[in-house]
Amino acid sequence: MKFPEYPTVTCYTPKGFDATKLPNYNKRHHYKYDWSLHTLLLKHLRSSSKFDEPVSLSGKVLQELFGSVYYPMIIKSLMDGKVITRFNYRAGEHAFKYKINPHILKEGIQAKQIDKVTIRRKIHLFRDKDIQRNLKDAISKHEFQNLTFIDIDVEDAIKFINSKYKEGTPKHTHRILSVYEVSRMKDTQTAEGIIKMDWMFKVDRSGRWHTPIAHLAKDLRPFLKTIDGKRFVELDGACSQLTFCHKYLLEHVSGKVSNSNIIGEGGTPTESDNEYEPQWGLDGPKPMGRGSLPSYDVRIDLMWRNAIFNGNAYQLLMDGMQWKKSRDEFKEYFFKNLFFNKYRPKLTKMEEAFKHYFPHEFQRLRKTKKRIGNKELAVAVQRYESRFWHKWIGSSMREKFKLINYATIHDSILLPEENVNEVMVEVTRQAIRFFNPYDSDEPLIPTFRVKTFEAVSDRGTELNRPQK
Prior knowledge:
With 468 residues, the protein is an alpha+beta fold.
């Protein structure tokens, strides 16, 4: 009987790591030490803080690969050897948090090959099982296939990284790791009914795709290309999370407010404004049905709504607060202190300012955070975002632009520059449908921008928005 062949599996470990020096080292488990660190490295790569903060690591995956008996022994050896640190378990979290100790990473990372047949088989089957679970429809399969048509200039990218970042630092490590991951996407194979791949692919519960492209640093995007050599540009939704959050809050708010409507003038909030709650059922929030007007009136802060759909909300707030630092630093401060921070009775300074200028959006945001929590709000907003880009736009790419290579990065899409204008028209058309589920004489139109990658920097240019 002929068994399927499984390609060699790549494993990343810190250069400063030597498994043979671990306490209670067992030669039989050598690859398990390496693969545990590899899994933790990729988890760090997917996190927003990269290698600066500890990350949650569920034992379920490693237990399935190593067995429930051996998994605790492997983790304990890595902890006793001062390779990783485990942080105390906290109530409400589903997994311990771990961090690779900085002294282990100071020399950078290295790629190793796992060539033992039984291990390769187990890893490939595990990956295929995860892939098949997430690629159940033709739209998702088409998008996944497009990822395998993307390549990167490895040599030039690594030269750039080495010239700009010190080896062993978090910024250097996660960039090197990302380049290696992207470079192997084109080598994906499908044989004997199994997808054989050697790169990161995860879909989280919000529907976001975590791929090497999604986590590639912005300054490395100029090195991306299609397998036939075409360069990419990025079609980006301005103030994306703010527009999706606005839609989510409106569709999950209930309450009667007089002298206003869903696209009407805002005003001074009354006592009743402070009482409206998200509409909840046994299975969570009940969204407003497509094609019908809500049966209640909701006040809108017109300045805020216009700012997020015109793409200048962050600049508006930065000007109002006389912000002196960078836009990226402001966005980090904004989300940590207003949109996705924990609900507390005492307001942050950012919350106080937002409440003063945009009282209606603030009340919807605050009531929702109090009811479902800041983490669930973030997941809910990202679920809207994922539905739009992966399902709505993914469907358009499959049906209308089947031969155009593309990749989605959470709130944007990469595609060849020669195709950006025609795709821009379709993305805008779909966005009008998505954000206006009922007829309106003045539909909300999000702003999309095209970022071109020149040398090692990107320059933003806004295309003309379609006329009403």
